[in-house]
Amino acid sequence: AEAFGGGAYGGGGAGLWDDDDDLPLELLGLDNSALTPPPGSGRSAATGGSVGASGGAAGRLGRGEALGVDLDAVLGNLEGSEEVIYGEAFVQLAGDDLVVPRGDDALREFLVSHTALGLADLDRVLTEELVTLDGFLRALRDNAAEDNEVIDCFFGLPSVDGESVDPGECRRALKVLAQSMGIDGLSVSMWERIFGAASVGGPGGEQNVSMEQWVVSCHLLFRIFRLVDFADLSPSLLAAAPASTRGGGASSSAGEETF
């Protein structure tokens, strides 16, 4: 299935953004220095773009790569990656004013496309007449998943002690939720990285999961997938899976299972 092509949590780009714009992230106090490409990567520190002999961009990069954010950065520093990627989007929405009226059509379209919110939910979530970057990020982070659906899913899992669920059951359920977003064909090693970033089962991944921990992990998982989609990093999720097994759920020729 094509990543994020539909499903209960389907979103996808709203088609509002011009990837060729160089955006003044410093206006928002954002710093992507910790997320910039390493020396020798062939990408410029300022924009992340590949630079040829003439100094111009050589080809087109995805939104994340153009800002120095890759999949490793997302999984290792989710909040910082969100600030850089969504900060770029906010600058395009806000312009020089650095605030956006909460009734702005482009703002509302963006939030509906990249969260579990519907149009009817936005006035409840956007409590200020003028939306700042902090309010924008909070709306994206707090509403990556729909709490009632996430909780219903938890109570459908077999309980260990009436209050918690085995971490293996949680991981299997999260994979099913990911499939509802069009995420398919990931390798075992990639899933382990994602589950680690989403704190599934605690630091060692072996602790039983309470409902509160489940909700936190679900929100982290959906924040990761939504950011990966918007940053054009979806191909990186499949990089570890051989092309013959992507999307198929079969075992790879190297012996690594995909889902």
Fill in the keyword field for this structure.
42% helix; two-stranded antiparallel sheet; mainly alpha; 259 residues; single chain; 11 helices
Describe this structure in words.
- Helix 3 (78-94) crosses helix 10 and helix 7 packs across helix 10 (211-230).
- The longest helix is centred in the last third of the chain and has 20 residues, at 211-230.
- The N and C termini lie close together (12 Å).
- The relative contact order is 0.15.
- The chain contains 11 helices and 4 strands; from the N terminus they run H-H-H-E-H-H-E-H-H-E-H-H-E-H-H.
- By secondary structure, it is mainly alpha-helical.
- The model is unreliable at 1-60 and 241-259 (pLDDT under 50).
- It is globular.
- The protein has helices at 63-66, 71-76, 78-94, 105-114, 122-125, 133-142, 147-155, 167-180, 188-197, 211-230, 234-237; strands at residues 100-101, 130-131, 164-165, 209-210.
- Strands 1-2 form a two-stranded antiparallel ribbon. It has a two-stranded antiparallel ribbon with strand order 3-4.
